[in-house]
Amino acid sequence: MIDCPRKNVRIGEEYQARIPQKISHESHLHIPNCNSKNENVTAILKVDGTIECTKVWDPVKYKISSLDYDIFCIVGEKNFNGDCLDLCLSLLHIFDYNPRHVYSIINPCLSAKGCNVVSICFKDDWSISDQKKFQKCIEIYGKRFDLFKNDLPSKKITDIVKFYYHWKKSNYYEIYKSSRPKMHTKF
């Protein structure tokens, strides 16, 4: 039997989580803080009796037509893998839901085989020479990121690790993996 510091089970009203009630669309129209008349506002009644309102979406503010959004999603789904599609949707949010502007940013990816998440995410931080040095370090040091500092002195170890995980999801990793000879073990 496992030795547990708590020998009894806590049962009762005082041990239960207090879940706030979700206010219906009709009732939040009468709340002073929530003056929006659309269902895109979520109002929650807190435990202390106060009401918290959060606007989830405002189509008037962003002025994006559903056709533009649908085209953007179709292009993204057709050309990108899941990770890059998430990145594209994040960029769409960052640039105030302007799909044409985001499309101009991601358009260079469309000419390559799929999306290069690494080049979009780290375009300003990692030059092409830094990326090549990184790949050389992977071949020499493996995942011993502290040794990468010799070849990439301007990068922090946290930046190198972040870059590694994005690189691993990119097409460059697939090319790198297929170019390496397969190691056979006797086990």
UniProtKB/TrEMBL annotation:
GO terms for biological process: negative regulation of transcription by RNA polymerase II. One of its GO terms (molecular function) is DNA binding. Gene3D superfamilies: Homeodomain-like. Residues 9-59 form the ELM2 domain. Coiled coil: none annotated. Pfam families: ELM2 (PF01448). One of its GO terms (cellular component) is nucleoplasm. Keywords: DNA-binding, Metal-binding, Nucleus, Zinc, Zinc-finger. SUPFAM superfamilies: Homeodomain-like. InterPro entries: ELM2_dom (IPR000949), Homeodomain-like_sf (IPR009057), MIER/MTA (IPR040138). This is ELM2 domain-containing protein. It comes from Rozella allomycis (strain CSF55).
